[in-house]
Amino acid sequence: MYIEKVNNPQDIKGLNINELNVLADEVRAGVLNRVSSHGGHVGPNLGFTEATVAMHYVFDAPRDKFVFDVSHQVYPHKMLTGRKDGFLKVDDMNAISGYSSPRENSEYDLFEVGHTSTSVALASGLQAARDLLGEKYNIVVVLGDGSLSGGEAFEGLNVAAEAGTNFIVLFNDNGMSIAENHGGMYKSLAALRESNGKSSNNIFRALGFDYMYVEAGNNIEKLVDAFRKVKDIDHPIVVHLHTEKGHGYQPAVKDKEAWHWSVPFDLKTGKPTVAGSGESFSDLLGQYLVKKAELDDKLLVVQSAVPAMSGLSKERREALGKHYVDVGIAEEEAVALISGAAKAGAHPVWGTPATFMQRTYDQLCQDLAVNGNPAVINVLGASIYGMNDFTHICFFDIPMFSHIPNLVYLAPTTWEEFITMEDWAIAQDKYSVALRVPCAVVHSDEEYPTDYSQLNKFQVTHRGSQVAVIAAGGFYQKGEAVLKLLADEGINATLINPRYLTGVDEQLLDELKCDHQLIVTLEDGSLDGGFGERIARYYGPTDMKVLNFGVKKALYDRYDVNDLLRDNHLTETQIVADIKTVLA
Q1: Using one digit for the tens of pLDDT, what is the confidence trace for 142-172?
Q2: How far is CA 171 from CA 79, 157, 211, 239, 582, in A?
Q3: Which residues contact 538 (CB under 8 A, 6 or more apart)?
Q4: Is the full-model pTM beyond 0.85?
Q5: What are 1's strand-pairing partners?
Q6: Nearest to 207 by CA among 194, 231, 188
Q7: In what helix (H) or strand (E) does residue 57 lie, and over which residues does it extend?
Q8: Reading across the β-sheet that carries 139-144, which strands appear in turn?
């Protein structure tokens, strides 16, 4: 095997084209070994395997700088830059991130990259510094998988083109984003593919770039030839590569959307080897939105390239018809769009993972909340039980959302409570509303209110004394478990579902002063700037003691949830022990 002898890109420089093809097959086998055993991005990496081999064969990394967008295509690169064991050996897979990461002590990864459309802008900084310092090297950007639809990509292209110096964009065009492409510019890309790059409708030339088209984007010989032509070029150029998403693995070629990312699976059958965990909140949400559209002519379901997160399969998207809009990987556009749609009388609902909402903070404040338009946002995966890669942490949303004036942030505790809140949020016309969608499906027979317009009214679900536990959203069930343990210790505590994360129930908090001496807050998120701190601040001038439980602010990467819970004193027994210590 060639791959066993490859410890850095220099080790492939002496291979001929036939040997490079064998190496590409071995790299693809390594990618499949990792994703089938460990899970990860399947189709994007398989489709860019040959291009990665050709890149490292022609260019001279790390002197030449590679910047990968979103990192969906970074696995083959890692295998060729000293990290192949993370793909070939099961025991070493956890040591390797699924994203570009200099924290892996690799001089070949320049940036932590997990969000899309950032590569060109980051690389434009390399370009500016290189030119300022009078240095000479190639800057190579890998852009694809829908990344071109993000506004930051265009900002970076605009700046790099004006600089006018060496800047090579490898545009990986597999005809897909995470799901299908959306946006008018993709007609231009289709025209370029259909004309073998000769169409006058060329978005890259319009932006000031030179342009080259490579139809055979999975042919190493063609790729090597193209890359040699642009190496050391003295101006910005886009090399448009027409690749096949999932190339070399038929299930991933046949169903490109389903195989964008996968849990561990059997290589022969393509079937998952990890059992599902019962009902999925995403699936229930998708069902709900389709039914809601049948009842509400004004409903507009908005996505930003990750429809599966809201349970919107291709069939459900088709069923929604005119009620569905996908803006591509462009969260800023999504927020502005739902604000405009609400202003015009529609009932827009946008959903995406919490980690991607960080990218549109200004629009949440200025385009939406300041205008007071009644759009609805479903904040998905917002939990320590959500995605746990370094760049995809989803539990910093409460500090972000809860401090935006004029935005109501709700925290449902069960599926049924979520539905009543969502129905109210869609029907009302006074507030911009976000809902922190729980990760786990919990059912309840409780009757929930149908009107949440009297803001910041908490719900007391069990009245006791001495200790009050305010357990928000997905941690409400943890609060119930804490109450049972306290009861075993002879403490009849109060349990409160706060429902609102953007304010406090001053009347209730004042009432608790009469027969309580300790308030305990539980939140599935960051302590710093979180919900609990708001409660503690309210009680600051009083004798009431407050214990806040959540996650300390830190950089987390591929953490074990149980370890995270223990390290932050978030197990029920630890919480009870801390309560007893304060009471004592």
Answers
A1: 998 778 888 899 999 999 999 999 999 999 9
A2: 21, 12, 10, 6, 59
A3: 504, 506, 509
A4: yes
A5: none
A6: 188
A7: helix 49-58
A8: 65-68, 139-144, 167-173, 236-242, 210-214
